[in-house]
Design brief:
Radius of gyration: 11 Å
Structural class: mainly alpha
Strand content: under 5%
Shape: globular
Number of strands: 0
Order of helices and strands: HHH
Helix content: 55-70%
Number of helices: 3
Amino acid sequence: MAKASKDYFGLNWIVSLILAIIPVTSWVLGVVTRFSEGHWICGIIRIFGGWLIWLFDLISMIFAHRIFRLFK
């Protein structure tokens, strides 16, 4: 898997979009993705602000075909 993959674990865009639509799945996968990329602060931000970031993830997944990244 690439260090900075576009979607959840390098999955297809359509699969990632379906997973992003479900709030709990998007929250869990977003946290795990950020921790697996080595971005600990971003993972912690997603733990506590995950429900707000879920909206940004959904919008970003629809228009940019990638999850929302607050920090790179």
